[in-house]
Automatic annotation (TrEMBL):
GO terms for cellular component: plasma membrane. It comes from Ornithinicoccus hortensis. PANTHER family: INNER MEMBRANE ABC TRANSPORTER PERMEASE PROTEIN YDCV. The chain crosses the membrane at residues 7-30, 50-72, 84-104, 124-148, 169-191, 227-249, 281-304, 338-358, 370-392, 398-418, 501-523. It is found in: Cell inner membrane; Cell membrane. This is Iron(III) transport system permease protein. Keywords: Cell inner membrane, Cell membrane, Membrane, Transmembrane, Transmembrane helix, Transport.
Amino acid sequence: MTPLLRLSVWVALAGVVITPLVMVVSLAFGANHLPMLLEAGLLDAAVNSVVSAAVSALLAVAGAACLALLVDRSDLGGRGAVRLLMLTPLLVPPFVGAIAWTGLLTRGGLVHTLTGWAPWQMYGGGGVIFLLTLHSLPVAYLVVSAALARVPDDLELAARAAGATPRRVFGDITLPLVRPALLAAFTLVMVSNLGDFGIPILVGSPAGYDTLATMIYRMLQSGTVDAPLQVTSQIGIVLLVLGIAGVIVDRLAARRPVELEAAGQVGTPLRLGALRAPVSVVAWVVALVVTLGPLLALLTRAILPAPGVPLTWETVTLDNLRRVVTAPSTVSGVTNSVLLAGGAALLCALLGLAVGVLTTRAASRTSAGMLFTVLLPQAVPGLIIAVGWLILGRYTGLYNTGWIILGAYVTAFTAMVVQSVRGPLAAMSGSLEEAARLSGAGPLRSLWDTSIRLALPATVSGAALVAVTAVRELTLSVLLVSPGTQTLGVVIFGYQQAGDYNASSALSLIFMLVGIAAVALVVPRGSHRRRRWLRGTSSMAQGVRV
């Protein structure tokens, strides 16, 4: 039965992973549209993509390192609460964050409404880099924090006992040991940001700041391009090459690992001395602005009838909330999102559990290839996966149906379940399966009664994460929706693109609160288990920006 299961899994992977990606590559090399693309701004879009991804990754890693040192290695006041507040952007979809921050800082936003002064018209490259940095910082922090916790405390104590200053200890001991983690965080964030769609389309495009992701969307939606799928496939190849280059850099860096022997215990906190009070105040102000600022901006726009209307008791209204909650598009979007998320969670759980079992408990010569295939979409921008399914849909009759969105979700999110179950499965002893076989069970029955049953909780956890991610998703859905299959993210995006900022803010506010509540239900209780879950989530979430 195991060879039959392995064959079935390979057939499934060929259908949902290999075929869409191969079709993008094969279609891209079917003709030469490079002159037209260069004239349309391909070079500028590529430069903007690389610059925004690289600069935001650099800033996110630098900010994450400072945050990790403050909340993990110092006596900062209320550092546990500061850590949780700074991680909240991880729970908010980037496109909702873009709507919220533009509603906070730009003309007609919350600050402008209250003070008459608009701090920043953030449309353009600067705003894109700022928001990419903000939404990447939690992921970079989790990577750096995990490495920092494994730095042996004895080395730092010995250096301090020898008279080294805290700055000298950091430069000579701590920094060299966490440098590989800093580089890994940089490449992971940069590859992820290369394919981000929600932030550049909402903040960059209004100022003419195109990236490769927004260029693909523009080419598909304009209706003026001949062979749009072939043209966008060629843009996708550029994104794919950039993404693979980032992964290669990451792999090269990982070939020179630093062995850390500590068991993940936090070292002795560094005393900030006279700087403790001012640094704590600054950290708390930043954390509160990052957390409450976007929330209050969405709330303000949601309860005002139109942008620019003064905020008084007389102007406050709940009409926007009533309108978006009762709108047929919202009801349809919620229904489609829930059905697609549930279906994706079920299919990803079945396929991910099978891949996890076959690559850990029944390993063979094809296991490495199977694992690489299912994890490959994590290094591929979501728009390329969407273009692959658009091409596949034309040949299979799935075009303009919800099945094409479901297929793209399975391609993009199965890796989450695989990463969730591989750890527990790899850590299990083989003695249970041997005992089952000695009792007369066959290979598949022994796997089912022992390893698979014990891995079911991790499978359910991974499937829940898939469902939460799919409900909040925009990048894949925005290219694949058709009349009747709109998802909730696309409905919000549609309000924003139509200039109905109050409606988009009202629906984003509900979406944000429900999303945070849903993630809170998935997060395990207890500080140790929560930190371990967040570290696992950071690696799962890298491949897909929602």
